[in-house]
TrEMBL record:
<dbReference type="GO" id="GO:0016836">
    <property type="term" value="F:hydro-lyase activity"/>
</dbReference>
<keyword id="KW-0663">Pyridoxal phosphate</keyword>
<dbReference type="InterPro" id="IPR011780">
    <property type="entry name" value="D_Ser_am_lyase"/>
</dbReference>
<feature type="modified residue" description="N6-(pyridoxal phosphate)lysine">
    <location>
        <position position="131"/>
    </location>
</feature>
<dbReference type="GO" id="GO:0030170">
    <property type="term" value="F:pyridoxal phosphate binding"/>
</dbReference>
<dbReference type="InterPro" id="IPR036052">
    <property type="entry name" value="TrpB-like_PALP_sf"/>
</dbReference>
<feature type="domain" description="Tryptophan synthase beta chain-like PALP">
    <location>
        <begin position="90"/>
        <end position="405"/>
    </location>
</feature>
<dbReference type="GO" id="GO:0008721">
    <property type="term" value="F:D-serine ammonia-lyase activity"/>
</dbReference>
<dbReference type="InterPro" id="IPR001926">
    <property type="entry name" value="TrpB-like_PALP"/>
</dbReference>
<dbReference type="GO" id="GO:0009097">
    <property type="term" value="P:isoleucine biosynthetic process"/>
</dbReference>
<protein>
    <recommendedName>
        <fullName>Probable D-serine dehydratase</fullName>
        <ecNumber>4.3.1.18</ecNumber>
    </recommendedName>
</protein>
<dbReference type="GO" id="GO:0036088">
    <property type="term" value="P:D-serine catabolic process"/>
</dbReference>
<dbReference type="InterPro" id="IPR050147">
    <property type="entry name" value="Ser/Thr_Dehydratase"/>
</dbReference>
<comment type="similarity">
    <text>Belongs to the serine/threonine dehydratase family. DsdA subfamily.</text>
</comment>
<dbReference type="Pfam" id="PF00291">
    <property type="entry name" value="PALP"/>
</dbReference>
<dbReference type="InterPro" id="IPR000634">
    <property type="entry name" value="Ser/Thr_deHydtase_PyrdxlP-BS"/>
</dbReference>
<keyword id="KW-0456">Lyase</keyword>
Length: 456
């Protein structure tokens, strides 16, 4: 009954993963066929809504992350004057996209009731992507620890003093390292170099040249690997472990990154309130988040669940060639499985999402709070990229468009309708808000953007 796998041939058929052959896995999970064949699919999480036992502990931690970012606001203004109008709080606009909504309805022949908003992390200050949340937060936390322990900093000080030569010199005794497909390296590289840390970014083979060039120009050491993201992380982790003064930012397993991302939710709540947009039992909120290793979308989902509980419905978006989080959740193997083991090649133009193995920390935390996920073909990312540029004048990178396919999937696929029926949402959709989380793009060079536009 199960369809044959295209890739790999007999070697793949005989192989077992966690004790089962690929065919046995496919029999257990109906949608695994589509994942393995790299077809688009929409998956509902069967464990959604079960108890989340560690909410309380993490809720406190999210609060303390919010407080820490506020303490650093004076430093951020000092170091990055462009954040002045926002008083040193690194936050992105939430905008309406009515023409995009109309275009999506026409092109995909689907009615999208309710209102679509775009969350423009593409325009976050400092590094122009969602990574300006988690990445910068973790470096700031590290800087605060060092400054308190060795530089006499107190919580009540004006953190603007951290921009002084004395603190830069202190930080220059320490280093930061990270493995990245590009954007995390950018945000960590930029903030670390600004503070005065020595910083090394281990880049995967798919990282774009302009990102490496930009970092090198800032004095960041860039090490390149002819391999994927997991390898870059592994090498970075190994090298950092040899240096006691080096802090490794572990994108696969960092609670601090996760917390930095989670702080987005409280701020989004304020933005919605400012627009008088309700989120409650009669006004559901749907949020569509592009997912790579999981920290960004996972942290935000966690924060949103703390803020809105059952009234928010979060879906992850992954490329058909890199569906690592969907695979980890569907099989329950979390980080104990990679897409490559299932013959999926992890080759995508959506470089921020080119990850073959999910974060185990995030995958486990998502088990009960993620509504579902879906995959999208690269070609469609480019179509949506062009549509967004032409309809709204927002220029985003391919990864950032993965979320735009969410409302279409949800409202036009049988599985999506099933979700709405199960949660008694069908009759409330006129009052729904859909947020497409646009995760990056403002720093993409013009010629690169033109290449993207030409691809649709
Ligand atoms: C990193 C990234 C994501 C996904 O974040 P993860 O934490 O890797 O899941 C999405 N979009 C862009 C543009 C990114 O750089």
């Amino acid at each position: 009954m199960c369809s044959r796998i295209i890739l790999g041939g007999t070697a793949l058929e005989k192989k077992t993963i966690a004790g089962l052959s690929i065919f046995e896995w496919q029999e257990k999970h109906r949608l695994l066929n589509k994942l393995v064949n790299m077809d688009e699919m929409f998956w509902l999480n069967p464990d959604y809504g079960t108890e989340l036992d560690d909410t309380i502990v993490l809720a406190d931690q999210v609060k303390s992350a919010e407080d820490r970012l506020e303490r650093f606001a004076d430093y951020i203004v000092e170091a990055f004057p462009e954040t002045g109008p926002m008083h040193g709080i690194i936050e992105s606009p939430l905008v309406e996209v009515p023409s995009m909504q109309e275009n999506m309805e026409k092109s995909y022949k689907v009615v999208i009731p309710g209102k679509i908003l775009l969350k423009c992390d593409s325009h976050l200050p400092i590094s122009g992507s969602i990574k300006a949340r988690g990445g910068i937060y973790e470096v700031l936390k590290r800087a605060e620890e060092i400054a308190m322990k060795h530089g006499g900093l107190k919580q009540t000080d004006d953190y603007g003093i951290l921009a002084s030569e004395a603190y830069k010199e202190l930080f220059s005794n320490y280093s930061i390292a990270v493995g990245s497909t590009g954007n995390l390296g950018m945000s960590i590289g930029i903030i670390s170099a600004k503070l005065g840390f020595r910083v090394t970014v281990h880049m995967s083979g798919d990282a774009k040249q302009w990102k490496k060039d930009k970092l090198t120009s800032l004095g960041v050491i860039v090490k390149e690997y002819d391999d994927d993201y997991s390898k870059a992380v592994e090498e970075g982790r190994l090298e950092a472990s040899l240096d006691p003064h080096c802090h490794f930012i572990d994108d696969e397993d960092s609670i601090d990154l996760f917390l930095g991302y989670a702080t987005a939710a409280g701020r989004l709540k304020n933005q919605l309130e400012d627009r008088s947009i309700l989120v409650d039992a009669d006004h559901p909120l749907f949020v569509y988040l592009p997912c790579g290793v999981g920290g960004g979308p996972g942290g935000i989902t966690y924060g949103l669940k703390l803020a809105f509980g059952e009234h928010v419905h979060c879906f992850f978006a992954e490329p058909t060639h890199s569906p690592c989080m969907t695979l980890g959740l569907m099989t329950g193997l979390h980080d104990k499985v990679s897409v490559q083991e299932f013959g999926i090649d992890n080759k995508t133009e959506a470089d921020g999402l080119a990850v073959g193995r999910p974060s185990g920390l995030v995958s486990r935390l998502m088990t009960s709070i993620l509504s579902g996920s879906y995959t999208i073909e690269d070609q469609r990312l480019f179509e949506l990229l062009r549509m967004m540029a032409e309809a709204e004048g927002h220029y985003l990178e391919p990864s950032a468009l993965a979320g735009a396919y969410g409302p279409i999937h949800l409202l036009s696929h049988q599985t999506g309708r099933e979700y709405l029926e199960n949660h008694k949402l069908l009759e409330k959709m006129n009052k729904a808000t859909h947020i497409i989380w646009a995760t990056g793009g403002s720093m993409v060079p013009k010629d690169m953007m033109e290449q993207y536009l030409a691809k649709s």
